[in-house]
């Protein structure tokens, strides 16, 4: 069988025919490589010529997606632009629908926080699953014969064993180990299943690590963008690429100190690559990705990129060196096909090398000349060799065979949005709704034209009856313009008339509305998925749920298609690579890949809803609780969420439950009971002391309140007596004035005399008042002292 070729032909392997001189052998190799390049160029020309119709479709899809024109004939488009004097106004309804479709699929396949849409599990074995419920003991090999029993001796003597045997021990002193319980068939089957599951999980983690290293989710999302626009997504895997790794190795210097030296190692890792669909030329006779026999991929490389291939050990350095000494030969493939569909100017390819990569069956005559297969394989029609060839400027720079044995298919994986029965490529969203978009833009142009015509009237002038006052202004209609009548006495209405064009806005708007509805139908993307509510008067919650479910069916179908065409086959390729080249034996086994996109997410949602409903019913009825295992149901419900990894292992939970039950079943310690009683007594005493302190505090507060009330009462009485004295003093003053007036009237004495007579009485009254004030001050002083000392008066 052929061997994998990872080195250039001039360095990879010695000549098989020792009789052929090295120069002659090199000449034979060069001739074989030239013949191989000629064969591949001829096949490439055939493949390129049969893809013209699909490339025209891609151009239309790109134009509709970008909203640059209406995907109409170039001559008609030029005429329309000339009439309207520039670029045509257009409404781009294609881009938002395409973007929402791509975003929906990206969210289904790679939701927030989850960049892996697959899982790996052991291949189910029905016989093993049936045995898992068996309680029969596991058959074991026959045990060794039992030792001979001791022989009976004379009475009073210990039994004697066989000749040469050790003296028999006392049976009471011999302790026989207890034999372990025999394992059942079911337990052995469960152990085998668990071992396979553990190996499968390790394989899944290994592939996860590979995908993290190659940025699987990002490249898949990039492919999904072309999937929605052009109708076809393409990924290539596994691609073996060299990776230079750095590490530090501890070393001892002359003084015995540890230093770290940087070291480099070159590894070859399998990766996933996104492939531009427009750069791939598969077998035109194929109608499905699994039926593609061979494929070409175009790489437009600069000199720097081509020079980088020379450091890959699978490429021929001498031939790359010869290519770099020449000018790039831009082939007809790039000029006639890549430029139109990518909108690139021809000058952009002047300094690019058109490097072609071929994958497919190899010519066994050429492989035999290159010493890659033997004569037996060359003559066997059942032997087909899958290989890889790179050529540039009609010069082969790499020849390798498939690195994965048993995989007789190309490493390219295609997924179509809507299948095209006549091509391996499919139809995208812009192409599916092209007619609705064209009707929409045509109606929009009609609406604008009609709006322009109805913005003002049509003017009819009779030049024989009028003329402009300023002939330099001409016949153009302007505000405040002066006109002269050429015929005296004629009616001016006959010289100038205005005719209004009827508006057609409503009818054209109905056409626009119909085109939007047809766009929803043709693209299978209703407006509700774009965040717009359906236009209906009686939209209910149940109706909205039905509309959302119907709107999601198409996306779920496309997601399952992505799983079948992209996810599962690529993961299977990585699985075969690990089985063939992986150095970790603990993860190898017979596994199958399960997609984790829409199917698994929908299954988890349904399972989660069922578990919630069942646990809710069981919680309301004791008879229902006895019928199900609630802890297991809870674990299954948590596993359906994104935080399923928070669960402890079942073994750890069972161990903790057993320890808890054992602790509850143990007899209480008397000392612990006595200590608990003492603690309770101490707590009671503390509580009693706290209550006593609280009662004493309340009593003191009550006494203080009573004392304050008494003192307040006495203070009010004193203030009342003071007020009474002030009233009496005011009355005495009034009486004095009356007396003074009376004496002055009766005796007609002078004022000085009357005052002299009354001084004696006034001084007496003043003396009495001062004495009363002194008594009052003394009383206030005694009250203040009593309040301060807490005593009575």
Pick out its properties.
single chain, about 800 residues, alpha+beta, five-stranded antiparallel beta sheet, three-stranded antiparallel beta sheet, 24 helices, flat, disordered N terminus
The average pLDDT is 77
Rg from C-alpha positions?
Answer: 52 Å
Number of helices: 24
**Helix residue percentage:** 40-55%
Largest sheet: 5 strands, antiparallel
Structural overview:
The structure is a single chain. This protein has 793 residues and is α+β, with helices and mostly antiparallel strands. Among the domains are: 41 residues, no CATH class; 120 residues. The chain has 24 helices and 14 strands. Helix 5 packs across helix 18 and helix 15 runs antiparallel to helix 17. The longest helix is centred in the C-terminal third of the chain and has 78 residues. The protein is flat, with a radius of gyration of 52 Å.
Concise structural overview:
This protein is of the alpha+beta class. It has 24 helices and 14 strands.
Q: Helices and strands in order, then pairings?
A:
Elements: H1 9-12, H2 22-49, H3 52-66, H4 74-84, H5 94-109, E1 118-122, H6 126-131, H7 185-214, H8 216-229, E2 232-252, E3 258-274, E4 280-282, E5 295-301, H9 303-309, H10 317-324, H11 332-342, E6 353-361, H12 364-369, H13 375-379, E7 386-392, E8 395-401, E9 412-416, H14 429-432, H15 434-454, E10 458-461, E11 466-468, E12 483-485, H16 492-495, E13 496-499, H17 505-523, H18 541-581, E14 591-595, H19 598-619, H20 622-625, H21 630-639, H22 650-665, H23 670-747, H24 751-789
Antiparallel strand pairs: 1-14, 2-3, 2-9, 4-5, 5-6, 6-7, 7-8, 10-13, 11-12
